[in-house]
Amino acid sequence: MWIAIANIGWILSAALFLWMLYDWFRVDTTYSEATLTSSREGEIEAFQETHRV
User: Fold this and answer.
1) Helices (H) then strands (E): counts for the chain
2) pLDDT for 6 beyond 60
3) Residue 36 and residue 27 in contact, taking contact as beta carbons nearer than 8 Å
């Protein structure tokens, strides 16, 4: 019983790893490096957070 549960866990782990590799490849080929490293949200937050001393 425990061996079957352990094997199912390994199979799920391998499937998740393969899905992550596929998703990484798909995103890497779909979007440019500039798009992936841009932080538009960060720029908006920085603009709104003006601290005055």
Assistant:
1) 3, 0
2) yes
3) yes
